[in-house]
């Protein structure tokens, strides 16, 4: 199978050009065709020689994704189900905000982390995505926005999979979409979410990127976190918090802690007090998430009044916290749900 052209960073494409007897600057022209003009074939790259276009076509594929279905929510959220070259399916979401359009991308086919509240882990991990398969999600979303005259201004790596378990592809993806000759999405407009793979939190901190980091915490103590997230057995909460402190100290950037509220599990006033104590003094923000119901899981949504009570306790303790705005609640919005439905049908 040919490699995906979208997997190459600009320096890598420049190197390919030189190895194939072409001038390095041709790589910038190809990037312009791919990410600015957003063409669908090498034949359309008319300022390249026919010989170069044939070389590109012989070496690379542009067919990373095939759209299976597209759901559009009443709030404007768009959820795509894509088929990959090997028949596996992944999800990508366009979310509308007052500050722009955010694209939620997937990094793996399935997930092996095993969070007990998440539909993405149903069926386990199948494989990692190539960098180009992640890039193509943003590019396809941008093409869907083009007729509206809008752009993908933000990216959240919060779809199916654990990004840090596909680390090299993740970094290539970040560099490609950030490149000024590429999609030119600012690093500070990109957020990567991890379940807490401690060694890679240290490694990501040392990259010294301006990309935002979010930690899926979901619990105020180790006992509850282990029940919700088995990864806590491998990377205990105290180790995770030390890694978070290292990230903040090394980068000077604020961390986001994602905290899904599950009725009767982690949403009581005492849990809010405990969470505030855990995060006291950290440069961080807590994103409270009213959970989407997943039929295959047994968790229930926290009552609206209890969500606001939890928020007020955190804020009273000096913790910066907000409630995440819901997107696409009428279109199987929970991550992995659309893929799970497709798997049942096929």
From TrEMBL:
Binds 1 [4Fe-4S] cluster. The cluster is coordinated with 3 cysteines and an exchangeable S-adenosyl-L-methionine. Keywords: 4Fe-4S, Cytoplasm, Disulfide bond, Iron, Iron-sulfur, Metal-binding, Methyltransferase, rRNA processing, S-adenosyl-L-methionine, Transferase, tRNA processing. One of its GO terms (molecular function) is tRNA (adenine(37)-C2)-methyltransferase activity. [4Fe-4S] cluster binds at residues 111, 115, 118. GO terms for biological process: rRNA base methylation; tRNA methylation. InterPro entries: Aldolase_TIM (IPR013785), Methyltransferase_A (IPR040072), RlmN_N (IPR048641), RNA_MTrfase_RlmN (IPR027492), rRNA_lsu_MTrfase_RlmN/Cfr (IPR004383), rSAM (IPR007197), rSAM_sf (IPR058240). CDD domains: Radical_SAM. Its main location: cytoplasm. PROSITE patterns: RADICAL_SAM. Residues 97-330 form the Radical SAM core domain. The keyword S-adenosyl-L-methionine applies. The active site is at 91 (proton acceptor), 335 (s-methylcysteine intermediate). It comes from the Bacteria. One of its GO terms (cellular component) is cytoplasm. Its EC number is 2.1.1.192. It catalyses: adenosine(2503) in 23S rRNA + 2 reduced [2Fe-2S]-[ferredoxin] + 2 S-adenosyl-L-methionine = 2-methyladenosine(2503) in 23S rRNA + 5'-deoxyadenosine + L-methionine + 2 oxidized [2Fe-2S]-[ferredoxin] + S-adenosyl-L-homocysteine; adenosine(37) in tRNA + 2 reduced [2Fe-2S]-[ferredoxin] + 2 S-adenosyl-L-methionine = 2-methyladenosine(37) in tRNA + 5'-deoxyadenosine + L-methionine + 2 oxidized [2Fe-2S]-[ferredoxin] + S-adenosyl-L-homocysteine. Coiled coil: none annotated. It is found in: Cytoplasm. S-adenosyl-L-methionine binds at residues 161-162, 193, 216-218, 292. The keyword Lipid metabolism does not apply. Its cofactor is [4Fe-4S] cluster. Reaction proceeds by a ping-pong mechanism involving intermediate methylation of a conserved cysteine residue. Belongs to the radical SAM superfamily. RlmN family. Specifically methylates position 2 of adenine 2503 in 23S rRNA and position 2 of adenine 37 in tRNAs. This is Probable dual-specificity RNA methyltransferase RlmN. It comes from Aneurinibacillus thermoaerophilus.
